[in-house]
Design a protein that fits this description.
It is a single chain. The protein contains three helices and ten strands; from the N terminus they run ααβββαβββββββ. It is an alpha+beta fold and 245 residues long. The chain has two domains: 47 residues; 196 residues, no CATH class. Strands 1, 3, 6, 7 and 8 form a five-stranded mixed β-sheet that branches. A five-stranded mixed β-sheet has the order 2-10-9-4-5.
Length: 245
């Protein structure tokens, strides 16, 4: 082979190799952002307890009953559901699961410090019916039908953790068992003071304990329907700036 022929062949092989490297780099630059975005989304779901799991020995249903016992025991003027800053977020919190609150309607932005190692119960939208607030209801089945009817026509479900949306939220509808609680004076439902029983229905997720540091949790849900011939138009949205320490 002549020197000229060898040089020409060598140049051709180099050009083919360079072309292959460039094409490979181009494919990586195209695929990588999409792959990273998908990985980020997929990696978030393990941070949520599955709907059929038992965090700390209790079902989702049982934890939602505890959430209602918590919020309904707190007077309206200091209730975390009416809090616009987060100053009441630690009120009456106990146990391994920390309860976030929605609103009594509308939007709020709150700051909240949560101890390290706490799971977080997030309510998107929910409803509760009990014998004292609705004295026309006489049976457990009537309470359940009441709570479920107020959540027909749900839309706008959202939970976002640190800027990444959690998917499949429509699968997290939960009905509580019948639970006992006591209404204080100046309670959120305007019911008579005293002990009663209630049932709830709603959309919830339970986040596994967050890492130490700052996080942002956004929750939302809305409903438009007609209950007993009256328009039920309710929207709930909260952004929590959480500091885990």
């Amino acid at each position: 082979m002549s020197t000229e022929a060898y040089t020409s062949s060598h140049r051709s092989r180099k050009m083919i190799m360079i072309s292959a490297v460039v094409m490979g780099a181009s494919m990586i630059s195209t695929i990588l952002p999409s792959a990273l975005a998908q990985s980020s989304s997929n990696n978030l779901m393990p941070a949520v307890y599955p709907i059929n799991s038992k965090p700390y020995g209790l079902t989702y249903s049982e934890w939602t009953a505890k959430w209602w016992q918590w919020t309904l025991s707190i007077p309206k003027d200091v209730n975390p559901g009416g809090d616009t800053t987060g100053k009441n977020c630690a009120l009456k919190q106990s146990g391994p699961v920390w309860f976030l609150a929605g609103t009594f309607g509308g939007a709020a932005t709150r700051n909240c410090t949560i101890p390290t190692g706490k799971a977080v119960l997030v309510p998107m939208i929910n409803a509760e019916c009990d014998y004292l607030a609705k004295p026309n209801l006489k049976t457990e089945s009537q309470l359940l039908a009441c709570a479920k009817s107020e959540n027909e026509g749900i839309s706008g479900l959202d939970v976002t953790l640190d800027g990444v949306k959690i998917t499949g939220l429509q699968n997290y509808r939960v009905q509580s068992p019948l639970f006992n609680f006591t209404y204080p004076s100046n309670n959120v439902n305007g019911a008579p003071v005293g002990s009663t029983q209630g049932i709830s229905d709603g959309y919830w997720i339970i986040l596994k304990p967050l890492t130490t540091g700052e996080h942002t949790v956004h929750l939302a849900g809305s409903v438009v329907n007609y209950v007993s011939g009256a328009l039920n138009n309710f929207a709930n949205e909260v952004t929590y700036h959480v500091n885990v320490q």
